[in-house]
Amino acid sequence: MAVSKTTKKRGALGKGLGALLQDSPQKGKGEEEAAHPVAGIFEIGLEEIQVNPFQPRTHFDKTALEELAESIRVQGIIQPITVRKLAEGEYQLISGERRYQASKIAGLEKIPAYVRLANDQQMLEMALIENIQRENLNALEIAHSYQRLLSECDLKQEQLGDRVGKNRTTVNNYLRLLKLPPDIQAGIRDQKISMGHARALINIEDVDKQLAIFKRMVTEELSVRKVEALVKELNEGQEKKEAPEASNLDPVKKYEINKLQQKLASHFGTKVSLKADQKDKGEIKIPFHSTSDLNRILEILDLI
């Protein structure tokens, strides 16, 4: 029974890197070769290999590289790297930069590699998907990789989900991380907070309040469930009607008080209540949730 081109193309989705390696579009001899290894596995000199300019991972743990290098000294390279051929005796990494870097540390002169021909877009897509599937990327690196696949490889979210084996909701949750403030994104990158913490913070619209809870969760090492409860409390508080004394304030003064309240919340890393009336009388409330939380606030006030 004949298989239509449409069916064949759709069947490639969901296979991740394998789909790219086996079912790339073919337009001529050069691109036909790009869909198959040139001739299996080769031993290639490390000095002949250039690093991958499309590498989505920007940080490699030095200790982990040393451990991998020691493993390579003892057992050798178990899984070959993948490279593309640029010219005779000149190659560029598609995937396997950790193995490549560790092999240099281990003192190897050559490394086993699958050799392929690929254009820049194919190489970018292969490198991104291979890293997402096989490397221990943090949530932010995955989010950036998803964004690059969408923007630079011209994929739609549904296609992207098929390629990386994730549903559209999961892909969207990662992409939403890129809307968080730089400080919080750095916290994800440095593994100060988890994906679950970050997803809770996304539900806060006000950036100052996001940063306030972020600061508190890091300081107090709050669980995801605790952060979710704080966010729920914050959002429910915003939905409540304003107190009568606040509703009597003129708009300019109300704006100034709200802005100051947000600054105080950001400074103390907790929800702060600031109230004032037309005679400029009022109160400030700074709640604390434990002895350690109280001591933290007192330190900020320079009282202990």
Task: Please describe the structure with a list of short key phrases separated by commas or semicolons.
5-stranded mixed sheet, ParB/RepB/Spo0J, chromosome partition, 2 domains, 304 residues, 16 helices, single chain, ParB_N, Conserved hypothetical protein from pyrococcus furiosus pfu- 392566-001, ParB domain, 7 strands, 12% strand
Helix-strand string: HHHEEHEEHEHHHHHHHHHHEEH
Rg measurement, Å: 27 Å
Shape: elongated
SSE-based structural type: alpha/beta
Mean pLDDT across the residues is 76
Spans with pLDDT under 50 lasting ≥5 residues? 1-37, 241-246
What share of residues are in beta strands? 5-15%
Provide the number of structural domains: 2
Here the CATH topology of the largest domain equals Conserved hypothetical protein from pyrococcus furiosus pfu- 392566-001, ParB domain
> Total number of helical segments?
16
Oligomer: single chain
In total, the number of strands is 7
Q: What portion of residues is helical?
A: 40-55%
The CATH class name of the largest domain reads: Alpha Beta
How many strands, which pairing sense, and closed or not: the largest β-sheet? 5 strands, mixed
Strand order of the largest sheet: 1-5-3-4-2
Distance between the termini: 81 Å
- The CATH architecture of the largest domain: Alpha-Beta Complex
Description:
- With 304 residues, this protein is α/β, with parallel strands linked by helices.
- The chain folds into 2 domains: 8-135, Conserved hypothetical protein from pyrococcus furiosus pfu- 392566-001, ParB domain, CATH 3.90.1530.30; 180-300, no CATH class.
- 55% of the residues lie in helices and 12% in strands.
- It has 16 helices and 7 strands.
- It has helices at 5-12, 17-22, 29-34, 62-75, 97-105, 120-134, 139-152, 157-164, 168-176, 182-189, 195-202, 207-220, 224-239, 244-247, 251-268, 291-300; strands at residues 41-45, 49-50, 81-87, 90-95, 110-116, 273-276, 282-285.
- The strands form 2 sheets. A 5-stranded mixed beta sheet has the order 1-5-3-4-2.
- 27% of the residues are buried.
- Residues 1-37 and 241-246 have low confidence and may be disordered.
- Belongs to the ParB family.
- Keywords: Chromosome partition, DNA-binding.
- GO terms for molecular function: DNA binding.
- Residues 1-12 have a biased composition (Basic residues).
